[in-house]
Amino acid sequence: MKKFINGPENLEAEITRGMALAKPGLLRQLPGSNILVRQKLKKDKVSLVFGCGSGHEPAPGGYVGFGMLDAAVPGKIFSSPTPDMILKGIKEVQTEAGVLCIIVNYTGDVLNFRMAMEMAQMEGIAVESVIVADDVATQKNKSVGQRGLAGVLLVAKVAGAEAEMGTDLYGVKDVAQWAALGLRTVGVACRPCVIPSDGEPCFELGETEMEIGMGLHGEPGVMRCPMMNARDTARQMLDLILLDCNYENSEVVVLINGLGGTPIMELYVVNEFVHQYLAEQGIVVYDTMIGNFVTSMEMGGFSISLMRLDRHLKALYDAKAETPVIRR
Amino acid sequence: MKKFINGPENLEAEITRGMALAKPGLLRQLPGSNILVRQKLKKDKVSLVFGCGSGHEPAPGGYVGFGMLDAAVPGKIFSSPTPDMILKGIKEVQTEAGVLCIIVNYTGDVLNFRMAMEMAQMEGIAVESVIVADDVATQKNKSVGQRGLAGVLLVAKVAGAEAEMGTDLYGVKDVAQWAALGLRTVGVACRPCVIPSDGEPCFELGETEMEIGMGLHGEPGVMRCPMMNARDTARQMLDLILLDCNYENSEVVVLINGLGGTPIMELYVVNEFVHQYLAEQGIVVYDTMIGNFVTSMEMGGFSISLMRLDRHLKALYDAKAETPVIRR
Q: Catalytic: which of A92, A217, A233, A257?
């Protein structure tokens, strides 16, 4: 296992301290936890709390700061944060205006957040949630619903901007849900990541294979096939998205997210085709984000997200943000 | 070869178009070339031109925009841009105030930039250059001198901010040289990248080996050894830097740069130790940049750079920038 870590024992804590040390002006670590909290909390706005497993860096901590999250609660590698940690995050950033939890749609995340929210409510904290389920590759899986993927950061961006304007809890929740409604993501993977605790790859793929629709933790996708070129891969992915949601005559933001082991170069090559193909479908690209935003350690592959923007969402997307990763 | 590309033939052009399409408000592609030029060129300031091989994305194009580069001239994969392309870039962005070329210290880059600059001077363009040679792992190699590594983007940041203030050509050059004087970088690699044209890895390393001091194209380093943990690796790297340059009682910016195939998680783990170790040496960290800034496709590994900041460089480092990758 070729990883520049110091062993699996304290990995999550070391990541958190590394993030907090990098941007002390923006965020701080909550003592006795791996929770990252925004510096200069505002007492008169809705606070946003997001959590997910570790291993997806720079998520969740990279999005803490002005205009996005107030607290990021990471779990162990590829595990949901625990209810007590989520509760700790909620309590730390709670305000009179309330707390909105942003949850990615995995069974563990949903259960743990629900438990934490119930406990918070019992303590008199106004708390609401929005569930992000942007993965079109799991649309047929009725039992768990669609998974949450990288698109969650676009929801956090617009909801964070809305909260910064002083909108009330239900108003911020509405914006987050409206954004999530017009959000779709699909991923592709060609190389697994290695789980630090056991040194094993998180899935197996043949020497020349790739899998479209694979999840951030190696969950099964919808098509395992021989490696395709960038153009054909992106076309298959976009077709899955466009089958699920009609973006015709819409303006969208495109997010091309590397999973951690994919060269940035390839994301740009993919983007060239994405723009060409969307133009052919009459879809207008308002802005494009390219980089490693929500990763799976060194997994090879990427995801494509589209989020519909109306005039209000466009203003929120463009609004000032000051986080380690997103700045406007 | 598991790469999401469309073949090696038009790769550089596809990368360039992908970059231009992602941020049309910031940059545009110069027709008939892969040169990326800043939108809204300013006629009354020194222009900055930087070039390097393709394969290092988001460099060079990711740094074009307000407060940094005016033109980015990429070569073929891992090859210097040609003199005629560099000249084309210089001519496109030339102003009355002149042009400063930022050159990474490789034989081909230096030769080709010198040729282009001579041709530009013959056409009456005022052009100067600064050579960035931040790699301490080649300090003993007197024939070629130290190589240029990821630190070049910090030089571009401060020189770009100085140019934006309307400073004259020699003033901008002085700032760039002053910044480069206090800049040191060292890299480490544990996995090669694969060259798209022949599908071959750019170097070979044993199953459990890493190499400290390896260059961005797989050039030999100073120490090949069994994989070390993050802490020991970073300590070895920082010792090489601190042996070459005395940062005691200085304020520095730290740049921890992933080479493309290294999880962001590991960069944060490295950062935790870097901060601890620098504090022990009496070195004050002013800011930390962590991410994939100057890559080598999917190479595994990272580099650490330190750049000394005095009061003036600090202001320039903090100054407004609006490029695809760096925003302030």
A: A217
User: Quick check: A265 contacting B, CB < 8 Å?
Assistant: yes
Partner A contacted by B272 (CB < 8 A): yes
Nearest to B270 among A4, A54, A273 (CB): A4
Q: Which residue from A17, A23, A262 is facing B272, i.e. has the nearest CB?
A: A17
Domain ranges of chain A: 11-181, 184-316
ipTM of the modeled complex:
0.97
Q: Name the phi and psi angles at B192, rounded to 5.
A: -75, 165
CA pair distance B161, B142, nearest whole angstrom = 32
Query: Given CB atoms, is B262 within the 8 Å cutoff of chain A?
Result: yes
Contacts of B210 in chain A (CB under 8 A): 2
Instruction: Name the DSSP class of A217.
Output: T
Per-residue model confidence as pLDDT tens for chain A (328 residues):
899 999 999 999 999 999 999 999 999 999 999 999 999 899 999 999 999 999 999 999 999 999 999 999 999 999 999 999 999 999 999 999 999 999 999 999 999 999 999 999 999 999 999 999 999 987 565 566 789 999 999 999 999 999 999 999 999 999 999 999 999 999 999 999 999 999 999 999 999 999 999 999 989 899 999 999 999 999 999 999 999 999 999 999 999 999 999 999 999 999 999 999 999 999 999 999 999 999 999 999 999 999 999 999 999 999 999 999 999 9
Write the CATH number of the domain with boundaries A11-181.
Answer: 3.40.50.10440
Same fold, A11-181 and A184-316: no
> At the top level of CATH, which class does the domain A184-316 belong to?
alpha beta
* Pairs across A and B, CB distance < 8 A: 182
User: What does the DSSP 8-state code read for residue B139?
Assistant: T
Minimum CA–CA partner of B294 in chain A? A264
Sequence-ordered strand ranges (E) for chain B = 27-29, 36-38, 47-54, 71-77, 99-104, 127-132, 183-191, 194-195, 200-201, 209-212, 223-226, 251-258, 284-291, 300-308
From chain B residues 175-204, the ones with a CB under 8 A of any chain A CB are 188, 190-191, 193
- The answer to whether the CB atoms of A263 and B3 lie below 8 A apart is yes
Residue B201, judged by CB atoms within 10 A of its CB (0-12, 13-18, 19+), counts as middle
- Chain A residues with CB inside 8 Å of B328's CB? 327
Active site residue A275: no
- Site of tokens 């909260």: A163
